[in-house]
């Protein structure tokens, strides 16, 4: 482990993951934590962590970014004491509105909440995200259709300030870079001892579109998509079979007669009560 990203979510963590990969690092970001270490992280978030857990999980990884790793930067640094810490920062007003904006994007992507209910991988993802929300935000999410309902603005801003200030005050000064992605390659490469790449600094997840991007490339979403297609196939097959049975047994006509008679009786009672 060479780099631990300690910056809060929506402070440029996706851009940092892309930048570190361009610098040659093997990076684990949010979905990688879920995909490769789901059981470990559920144990860590629901019970406790040990230095040995993190050392085993990330011994072959160069850099960590995103949730839930940023919330455990101190424990991870104990497991890898030679690693450097990058604390990404962002102006608070911009950070908060970006956080809420991304949640609204997730809510508007209709298929994604349904996947979290109807597919095995999706249900695991929601369980993971729910545990993360409890640990990082101190709130509980009841369902995957409402990502914004739990955003208490004052509380979220306070947690953001506390996390950023705590890291800045407690990370070893000689290993810490307080950094904004707006600064580009220069400060980051100087801190890491890397040559400045010839390509522009990446800017990822602009407007909170990372779900659509990940749908195309990440194995977790590939599996979720395949499970989703199977669920749709099975539901369609069940619907067709049920329709066939209803038709073949004459249940449709019986149901129509039942509702017709029911309506006639109700109308008759209504007519008598008026009379």
CATH fold call of the largest domain: Rossmann fold
- Give the overall shape, derived from the CA principal axes: elongated
CATH architecture descriptor name of the largest domain: 3-Layer(aba) Sandwich
In this structure, how is the largest beta sheet organized? 5 strands, parallel
Query: What is Rg?
Result: 25 Å
Mean model confidence by pLDDT: 85
Order of helices and strands: EHEHHEHEHHHHEHHHH
Q: How many β-strands, per DSSP? A: 5
Name of the CATH class of the largest domain: Alpha Beta
Summarize the topology.
Blueprint: E1 3-5, H1 13-22, E2 27-28, H2 30-46, H3 51-58, E3 63-64, H4 73-79, E4 84-88, H5 92-108, H6 111-118, H7 120-137, H8 153-170, E5 176-179, H9 185-192, H10 210-217, H11 219-248, H12 251-274
Parallel strand pairs: 1-3, 1-4, 2-3, 4-5
Keywords: Membrane, Transmembrane, Transmembrane helix
Transmembrane segments: 230-247
Pfam families: Sulfotransfer_4
Supply database-style keywords.
single chain; mainly alpha; Rossmann fold; elongated; 275 residues; five-stranded parallel β-sheet; 2 domains
Describe the fold and architecture.
- It holds the Pfam family Sulfotransfer_4.
- Keywords: Membrane, Transmembrane, Transmembrane helix.
- InterPro entries: P-loop_NTPase (IPR027417), Sulfotransfer_4 (IPR040632).
- The chain crosses the membrane at residues 230-247.
- The model is unreliable at 270-275 (pLDDT under 50).
- This protein has helices at residues 13-22, 30-46, 51-58, 73-79, 92-108, 111-118, 120-137, 153-170, 185-192, 210-217, 219-248, 251-274, and strands at residues 3-5, 27-28, 63-64, 84-88, 176-179.
- It is elongated.
- The chain has a 5-stranded parallel beta sheet with strand order 2-3-1-4-5, sandwiched between helices.
- The protein has 12 helices and 5 strands.
- It is mainly alpha-helical.
- It folds into 2 domains: 3-217, P-loop containing nucleotide triphosphate hydrolases (Rossmann fold), CATH 3.40.50.300; 231-274.
- α3 packs across α4.
- The longest helix is centred in the C-terminal third of the chain and has 30 residues, at 219-248.
